[in-house]
Every structure is written in C-alpha cells, then in structure tokens.
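Design a sequence for this backbone.
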C-alpha cells in the first residue's frame, strides 16, 4: 500500500502542472473558472491521498515513540 501512496503522490505532482487550463475561459456552473474548479478537485484528491498515507503508510515506530513518552512521567513532576 505504501508504494501505491507514493504513486498517487507523484501523480498529484504531475497533475498539479495544469498548463492546459491556462487559456480556457469556460465557466462551470456559470461562475467558476475551469482552472479554479480543477484546483478544487485536485485539493480534494490531495486530501484523500494524505488520508491514505496516514492510515496505511505511516511508520509504526513513530507512534511507538509517542506512546512510550506519554506513559513515562515528566521530569520534575511532583516537585
């Protein structure tokens, strides 16, 4: 799954270079420029890829360190 997340990240990087929408003067819903609508969809896709990355490709050792420090008492506590 981690490789799929990396492929999706690279795809988002490539799709972010949307030079084909620069000269497009069409409006979506009568008020939204095509380039802006494209970037709205791209932002939603980036959020979905980040969600996948956090759920399926997050390194386990990072969470283990947080759990260990949360259980250990802080230095100087109780003084």
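Sequence:
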């Amino acid at each position: 799954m981690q490789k799929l997340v990396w492929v999706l990240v690279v795809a988002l990087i490539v799709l972010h270079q949307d030079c084909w929408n620069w000269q497009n003067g069409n409006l979506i819903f009568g008020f939204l420029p095509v380039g802006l609508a494209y970037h709205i969809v791209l932002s939603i896709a980036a959020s979905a890829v980040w969600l996948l990355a956090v759920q399926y490709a997050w390194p386990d050792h990072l969470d283990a360190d947080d759990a260990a420090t949360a259980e250990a008492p802080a230095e100087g506590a109780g003084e």
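The radius of gyration is 21 Å.
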